[in-house]
Amino acid sequence: MFALIMRRNWVLRVSIIINVCVLLYVCLHFGAVPASWIEENSGSWASPAAVAGQAEMLYGTAPKPNSTVAAPASSSSSAAAAALKRLDLQQDKKTESAAVASASGAVEFKANESKTSSQEDKQSSSLGNSILLESKPNNITTSNQTLKKELTLEEAIGCNDKSAEPKTAQRGDYWVLYNYVPMSAKLHCWESVTYTTHADFTFLDNLDPLLERWRAPVSIALHAPGADLAPTIESIKYARTCGSPLVKQFVTFHIYFSSKHVPKLIPSGEKVAADKANCSKPAPWLNVNPARMYKSERKLLYPVNVGRNVARDAALTRYILASDIELYPSPGLPEAFLEMLRRNDQPALNRPNPKVFVLSIFEVDEKSLPPENKTALIQMLKAGSAIPFHKKLCSGCHNVPRSKEWQEAPETKGLHVFHIGKRTGSFVHWEPIYIGTNDDPFYDERLSWEGKSDKMTQGYALCVLDYDFMIVDNGFLVHRPGIKVFKKDNYRDTLTAKTNILIKKIIVPELKVLYGTRKGCAV
Fold first, then answer.
1. C-alpha closest to that of 201 among 275, 257, 144
2. What predicted TM-score, i.e. pTM, was given to this entire model?
């Protein structure tokens, strides 16, 4: 009997131990299961993958591990429990979404803000400048305000670098030696502005005074037909060896000539760049008799627009100042211009129209030096030692809108848009010189310098395309000292009449087909 009782007590004890083990096992099992497993049907809860997917749709990229998106609350049992309790107690979807966003740190976005941002991106892209001060966010935050950051110059300009390798190519009836002697400076397309110009070798004495004020890249196309190539090459050597060090650093020389007047011998550009000139001798461009030049003896016209387009095409920077080599810019202009674009703090810069940035032009008498700044220029204008460009030749050709107000406005720090002009009304024949890009229409290469009106057709195209002419306040150009006066030239008058017929009968009808028409636009 005693043995039976002892056996039953033993079985009871074993049974109790087994039940305790089972209970401990069950507790351990449920304690190891994640909280998310409990809410299988909670579709509104944002998992890490869901947050990453949402960010990828909105921004094109998923947030990085160190971004400002908070991790889901599963790592904290108390936070997870609180979130799950709120989900159980509230059935309204909006309330559930808010609770989940609070627990997961997910960001709230408004559809209309996304739409507005998209419209602004498209509008800015249409300008061709790729300037955006409101950049897309790099991370996700709990704020629904558009993130802003100060752009770098590279981000503001937005361009692709071009090759500076020398090449030979045909351009219509002309052979072109692109980058025949390149500059030594290496730069990206967004780092500066290129002064693009044209000339023959007799104008290369303008390089030193031009570079002293510009101090940035210059792309120059030199017309050198037949025997004119030899003195052209000697002039390049002399300018690089004996002139300012800025010539070698910043000037890229291109050569062009008609296929009917190919020089007998063309040395390699590498050899020309390596050779040194004898600086004890006079510069090759001094004491030249224009009548003895190959061009004059063959009675060739100067293909001014071929040179303009060659220099523009070959420029390595996004922004270019297509000008004439005798026009000297105000000092510091490239830096001030790029800083204006980088700041992008003026509403005028964000207008949807295509745009160019116009420089006012002046002449000074031969006894005066070009002014160093606008303050000095205003003083010279009041004293009469400076006048608006071509005032005594063709005042309407370079009469800038609001020119009187411009001259009365005091100089300020930096560069800004002073006024937005149009090539209509009393300015219908305006020939502005401006900073633009190679997206702008090129010049008609059928027109010559002798026939005049060589920029009028390009101005017409700009008008029809509804360009904004952004007149800047503190930047300007000054012609080489010496005020021009009218001189009768029967030869040029004859060529001008022929050119006018060409423009009226052939070029303008072509432009109307290519660009259309606009009220108020004329050549």
1. 257
2. 0.73
